[in-house]
């Protein structure tokens, strides 16, 4: 079975919840207020205890009501979008303990609405989204990298990604309207109650066959994404090239699955068929043994396993290249560790480095496949490090930026393709991992293959290999050597020092909920600070001018005179030298999926002291703005900025 609940006891909790004491209408209203409804997904603590780290499968009565009404809102939405009375919808979960109970409630509602449901059980996010091309829509139950007591839902149609911001707003409004009806609890109970459970039984018993179909669809789709080829013959030629080269450049992939949804996905089979050695730990579904977010503090387990494997090597004459990754719970994100032969130990790559390597690889691969005469572009989120612009410039590509949120970046890439750009690589560099077109979601397998292509596609008499081509284009050919390793490639990346998204100092204690007021106050604080410290900033770091800009959805607005127009979007201050070159940036935005306010700083060069000091300055100004905005109503006025 591909589920934590057996066929016999799967309905016990929902039946128990709705036969017991019902929650009050006020309980539902309070729960609604603490539910985050963003374009990237809906999230809340679904554990009945409200404990963020609680591993209970019990979701409680209020959360059962919310789950049922979420499904009800989607039923109307997908019928309207598909134009069908009984559209086909795929439903799946990641491996969180509360997933099966939420799925059971939603499955009941979908069936009651005459939706043709295909229940996949546990499925990785990229898997169900690849399969969505074969159905009318999907509902995916997950809270991505959030703590284990959290859960949530992502909705999509049949284009391989989550719904766009406009549709997400409509769906959220429909859900709120259902929750605000006085009889919402009775409605949820009626939707979840079955006198004859035959249809529910069938949905569960058919689950295995639909899971198998989803895996086949995901395998085929991944082959297309990785190879950038649609026909099977060309795909086979590409993979044979990698397989042949892996025999002379052996590679071992180590993964810490941490009980994620990828434990039941394609990873092992797909990699081993190419002659790559695969080694996994914590690969039992639901065996979540440490924190979920794949940031350096949690990649140490994969690093430790890699160290053990390397120590057990009997033949070091042809030592393999070791790459490792750890996915988050829904398996759409996975950052990288590797064995550095030069220093004989494991290194954990930062998220921004992983994305930079992926961009380098895929831009070079575009030219390797299709030649130089292409209108190349990269779509990224606004806190992605400026090193991406330097990499893109070497390949003659442009960089376009969107607000934080996978859906924003995906939609920006679609807009740019309509303008004639080739946007093969996109993503949120601040979080690591990449989205490789035609995929519309991050995928650690695609990230891994970006690195494998860099390592395995080498010089031939007919073509220059990917890494060698990068060295030439970036004027670093002296750093190229024939038997290069990943550490050689990393050494050629543009140097930047960037705040890590999971660092404690990357979150500011902002209490002002009106972000327009907050940013209006920040404008006044920043401009006063700039004028007072102008000489010091120039002398210390070479800052001569600045440019404020904001990102809302897929729109970037430059040279702001009123910071408040960024609203809940990203606000950035570019800090420039006398030649108008960007040397650093300060960035801020309230999270759309967590109740936190995120900040960061990006500095050109290897200069941790500068990044630390700038972030402290940024934090001071923001907290001062928070205090000012809470005390008074700010009416922002246009003011001159120090740039043209």
Structure explained in plain terms:
The protein has 644 residues and is α/β, with parallel strands linked by helices. The protein folds into three domains: 12-213, Alpha-D-Glucose-1,6-Bisphosphate, Chain A, domain 3, CATH 3.40.120; 228-494, Alpha-D-Glucose-1,6-Bisphosphate, Chain A, domain 3; 504-631, TATA-Binding Protein, CATH 3.30.310. Helix content is 42%, strand content 19%. It contains 20 helices and 22 strands. The strands form four sheets. Strands 16, 17, 18, 19, 20, 21 and 22 form a seven-stranded antiparallel beta sheet that branches. It has a six-stranded mixed beta sheet with strand order 1-2-6-5-3-4, with helices on both faces. Strands 8-7-9-10-11 form a five-stranded mixed beta sheet. Strand 12, helix 14 and strand 13 form a beta-alpha-beta unit. Helix 3 (60-82) crosses helix 4 (99-112) and helix 3 (60-82) crosses helix 7. The protein is globular and about 75 Å long.
């Amino acid at each position: 079975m591909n589920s934590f609940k057996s066929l016999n006891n799967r309905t016990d909790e929902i039946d128990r919840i709705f036969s017991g004491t019902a929650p009050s209408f006020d309980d539902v209203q309070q729960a609604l207020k603490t539910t985050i409804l963003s374009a990237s997904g809906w999230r809340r603590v679904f554990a009945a205890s409200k404990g963020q780290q609680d591993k209970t499968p019990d979701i409680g009565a209020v959360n059962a009501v919310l789950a049922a009404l979420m499904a009800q809102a989607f039923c109307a939405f997908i019928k309207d979008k598909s134009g069908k009375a009984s559209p086909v919808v795929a439903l799946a979960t990641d491996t969180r303990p509360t997933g099966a109970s939420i799925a059971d409630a939603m499955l009941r509602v979908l069936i009651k609405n005459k939706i043709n449901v295909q229940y996949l059980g546990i499925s990785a996010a990229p898997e169900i989204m690849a399969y969505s091309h074969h159905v009318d829509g999907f509902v995916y139950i997950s809270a991505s990298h959030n703590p284990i007591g959290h859960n949530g839902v992502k909705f999509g149609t049949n284009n391989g990604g989550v719904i766009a911001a406009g549709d997400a707003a409509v769906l959220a409004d429909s859900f709120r309207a259902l929750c605000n009806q006085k009889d919402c609890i009775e409605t949820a109970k009626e939707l979840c109650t079955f006198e004859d459970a035959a249809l529910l039984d069938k949905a569960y018993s058919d689950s295995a066959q639909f899971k198998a179909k989803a895996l086949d669809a995901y395998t085929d789709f991944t082959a297309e994404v990785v190879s950038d080829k649609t026909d099977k013959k060309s795909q086979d030629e590409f993979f044979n090239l990698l397989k042949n080269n892996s025999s002379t450049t052996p590679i071992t992939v180590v993964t810490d699955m941490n009980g994620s949804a990828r434990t039941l996905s394609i990873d092992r089979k797909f990699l081993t068929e190419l002659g790559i050695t695969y080694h996994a730990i914590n690969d039992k579904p639901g065996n979540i043994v440490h924190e979920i977010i794949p940031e350096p503090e949690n990649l140490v387990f994969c690093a430790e396993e890699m160290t053990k494997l390397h120590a057990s090597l009997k033949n070091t004459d042809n030592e393999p290249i070791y790459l490792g990754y750890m996915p988050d719970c829904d398996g759409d994100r996975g950052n990288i560790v590797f064995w550095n032969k030069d220093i004989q130990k494991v290194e954990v790559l930062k998220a921004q480095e992983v994305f930079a390597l992926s961009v380098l690889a895929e831009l070079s691969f575009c030219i390797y496949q299709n030649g130089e005469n292409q209108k190349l572009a990269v779509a990224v989120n606004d806190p992605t490090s400026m090193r991406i612009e330097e990499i893109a410039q070497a390949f003659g590509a442009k960089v376009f930026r969107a607000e934080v949120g996978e859906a924003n970046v995906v939609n920006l890439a679609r807009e740019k393709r309509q303008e004639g750009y080739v946007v093969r690589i996109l993503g949120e560099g601040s979080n690591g991992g990449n989205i490789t077109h035609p995929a519309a979601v991050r995928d650690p397998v695609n990230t891994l293959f970006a690195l494998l292509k860099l390592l395995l596609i080498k010089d031939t008499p007919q073509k220059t290999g990917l890494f060698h081509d990068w060295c030439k284009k970036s004027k670093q050919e002296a750093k190229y050597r024939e038997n290069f390793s990943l550490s050689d490639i990393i050494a050629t990346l543009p140097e930047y020092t960037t705040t890590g998204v999971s660092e404690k100092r990357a979150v500011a204690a902002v209490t002002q909920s009106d972000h327009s007021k907050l940013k209006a106050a920040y404008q006044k604080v920043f401009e006063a600070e700039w004028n007072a410290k102008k000489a010091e900033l120039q002398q210390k770091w070479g800052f001569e001018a600045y440019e404020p800009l904001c990102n809302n959805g897929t729109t970037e607005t430059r040279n702001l005179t009123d910071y408040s127009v960024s609203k809940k979007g990203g606000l950035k201050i570019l800090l420039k030298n006398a030649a108008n070159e960007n040397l650093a940036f300060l960035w801020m935005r309230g999270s759309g999926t967590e109740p936190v306010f995120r900040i960061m700083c990006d500095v050109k060069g290897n200069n941790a002291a500068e990044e630390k000091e700038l972030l402290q300055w940024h934090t001071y100004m923001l907290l001062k703005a928070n205090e000012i905005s809470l005390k008074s109503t700010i009416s922002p006025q246009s003011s001159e900025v120090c740039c043209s």
